[in-house]
Amino acid sequence: SDLYLILDPSVSPTRSLNDALRKAAQAGVKIVQYRNKSASMKDAYAEALPLRKLAEELGVLFIVNDRCDLALAVDADGVHLGQGDLPLDLARKVMGPDKLIGISTHNPEQVRAASAGKPDYLGFGPIFKPGSKQDHDPVVGIDGLRQIRALTSLPVFAIGGIQLAQVGNVMKAGADGIAVISAVLNAPDVTKAVTDLIAQMKRSTEPTAG
Is 104 annotated as catalytic? Predict the structure, then answer.
């Protein structure tokens, strides 16, 4: 089970993403995604490139949100596609066979359709009301996650407003990992936030005695 951190400058404009990445990686995050929906390609590239290099140094997978061209430009490990982005087969053609591709899904139909194309993983949510988005898809809840678990054998990262207290329930409902944004980027202490989240994930996936 992995904690997946989304680095989005709009969520915490005053926090250095490089600093957040370094602290998060040292505390155990293994996969990060760079997400910037408002920047020009040029600005996004200037911001993503040092993050990509740092992720490589720290041994962390680096995924780019939405943009295959940006992912290739910084030689990211993969791309994460929303429902409005390039279809999976085309993205695979653009990215090549060795890059990771994840897909955001919000309901059973999307989970089925995405799984059929065999991406590397799915994002599913929003489980709760996101801390980072105003125009989000309808909240699916823990029950929504439980329902789609049976529909796919792919790794599923639960996303959307997940705070520390909810981690156990989300993992028990079948998530393979948890994607967070504001729970880490808006935390007073990134290291502590990541350490606590990972500890809680481990605790909820350990087999109970008895």
Answer: yes
Told to judge if 204 belongs to the known catalytic residues of this protein, a careful annotator would answer no
Which residues fall within 8 angstroms of residue 14, CB to CB, at 6 or more apart?
Answer: none
Of the residues 52, 67, 99, 104, which is catalytic? 104
Six token digits for residue 80: 């994460």
| Catalytic site residue from 133, 146, 149, 204 | 133
pLDDT digits (tens, 9 = 90+) for 50-97: 999 999 999 999 999 999 999 999 999 999 999 999 999 999 999 999
pLDDT tens profile 150-187: 999 999 999 999 999 999 999 999 999 999 999 999 99
Cα 33 to Cα 37: distance, rounded to the nearest angstrom = 12
Greater confidence (102 vs 134) lies with 102
Considering the candidates 22, 23, 35, 67, report the single residue annotated as catalytic.
35
Q: Is 77 exposed, middle or buried (0-12, 13-18, 19+ CB in 10 A)?
A: buried
Listed in sequence order, the residues at least 6 apart from 139 whose beta carbon sits closer than 8 Å to its beta carbon are 126, 127, 128, 129, 160
